[in-house]
Amino acid sequence: MLFLSQIRDWIKGFDAAENYYIGKMNDKEKSIGIFQLSPRPPTRAIGQQSSYEVRRISVKLHWNKNQNESERAAYELYSKLRAVSSFDIDDTHVYFIDLLQAEPVSIDTDDSGVYEWVIEFEIYYERKD
């Protein structure tokens, strides 16, 4: 199983923000939050156990009050995610990630005027039973 804390730590390796959170974010600018997307049904192979699992992730960039800087930060992280291929998170092998939109999605600003963007993806990783 891949946990949100492991995914947060992996994303920290991209050096894309100043602050990283899981579950709940605070109001600090230049922050990234890692959240679980609604799960999909379990993966089942016919006649045997599947060799992989899928974890659905939403990354929220809570950046600053400058739209251009915020958008650029979102696209930079998106490009880094798009460029990764097979890798490991701790002792779990990740086959690939599947970005669920063609680009980061703007979700406008929060109540204080900080621009926010979302990147959603699925992580396909080696099943360990």
Map the helices and strands.
Elements: H1 4-12, E1 19-22, E2 31-36, E3 52-62, H2 67-83, E4 87-89, E5 92-99, E6 105-109, E7 115-126
Parallel strand pairs: 1-2
Antiparallel strand pairs: 2-3, 3-7, 4-5, 5-7, 6-7
Can you walk through the features of this model?
The protein is α+β, with helices and mostly antiparallel strands. About 20% of the residues lie in helices and about 40% in strands. It is built from two helices and seven strands. Strands 1, 2, 3, 4, 5, 6 and 7 form a seven-stranded mixed beta sheet that branches. The model has no long low-confidence stretch (mean pLDDT about 95).
What are the main properties of this structure?
2 helices; 7-stranded mixed beta sheet; STM4215-like; alpha+beta; 129 residues; 7 strands
List low-pLDDT spans: none
The main pleated sheet reads as: 7 strands, mixed
- Which percent bin holds the helix content? 10-25%
Distance between the termini: 9 Å
- In round numbers, the mean pLDDT is 93
What is the domain total for the residues?
A: 1
CATH H-level homologous superfamily name: Phage tail protein-like
Beta-strand content estimate: 35-45%
Second-tier CATH architecture: 2-Layer Sandwich
Structural class determined from secondary elements: alpha+beta
The gross shape turns out to be elongated
Q: What is the overall number of helices?
A: 2
CATH class: Alpha Beta
- How many β-strand runs? 7
Order of helices and strands: HEEEHEEEE
Radius of gyration: 15 Å
- Reported by name, the CATH topology is STM4215-like
